[in-house]
């Protein structure tokens, strides 16, 4: 039994969750772990001097729990309970590869996670488009006025910059302004290539 762990990271509202769900529906034996499920409760998230809740930093997340969840899945993916049904025509050797897609905005800046990835994708958006999309979403707690410019976007740039300066990190940057179909087609083909390599 082999496992393939795919990171789908990047900018807020970049289309990570949508892409992950579509991939899950197309790939055999595929599960998703979402970083959003590891946010600390609001009471444990720090507030800065401007009154902004600092959600877009690693300290706002239970990262160790996330690593543990991924490692547990890797140990026994078949018992995770959400393995998709096998398509009838799937050849036997494909059944022995299990795929985990981990999606979230801060995947590649936490060292213990970096030894787990088989592939890393990072969705990007230009500032204006990201801000526009973010303004259409409802968050709990809600974004306060100035929050995007004061916290969300600067943290995205900070972590993206850290990533780009890490020469040892192989990341496939994706343009989040492309159509969902185009992004899905590209990532799906890429994952299939990885699957084929694992089966050889």
Give me some keywords for this one.
40% helix, 16% strand, 7 helices, alpha/beta, 200 residues, Rossmann fold, 5-stranded parallel sheet
Fold and architecture overview:
InterPro entries: P-loop_NTPase. Keywords: ATP-binding, Kinase, Magnesium, Metal-binding, Nucleotide-binding, Pyridine nucleotide biosynthesis, Transferase. This protein is of the alpha/beta class. It has one domain: Rossmann fold, CATH 3.40.50. Helices cover 40% and strands 16% of the residues. The protein contains seven helices and five strands, in the order βαβααβαβααβα. The chain has a five-stranded parallel β-sheet with strand order 2-3-1-4-5, sandwiched between helices. Helix 1 crosses helix 7. The two termini are 13 Å apart.
What's the gist of this structure?
With 200 residues, this protein is an alpha/beta fold. It has helices spanning 16-26, 63-75, 92-95, 111-114, 127-135, 147-165, 180-199; strands at 2-10, 30-34, 97-103, 119-124, 172-175.
Give the secondary structure arrangement, pairings included.
Layout: E1 2-10, H1 16-26, E2 30-34, H2 63-75, H3 92-95, E3 97-103, H4 111-114, E4 119-124, H5 127-135, H6 147-165, E5 172-175, H7 180-199
Parallel strand pairs: 1-3, 1-4, 2-3, 4-5
Helix pairs in contact: 1-7
CATH architecture: 3-Layer(aba) Sandwich
Number of strands: 5
Q: Name the shape in a single word.
A: globular
Please bin the fraction of helical residues: 40-55%
Compute the separation of the termini in Å: 13 Å
Number of helical segments with 4 or more residues: 7
Spatial strand order of the main sheet: 2-3-1-4-5
When the domains are counted, the total is 1
Q: What is the alpha-carbon Rg in Å?
A: 17 Å
Low-confidence stretches: 83-91
Determine the CATH topology.
Answer: Rossmann fold
- H and E order: EHEHHEHEHHEH
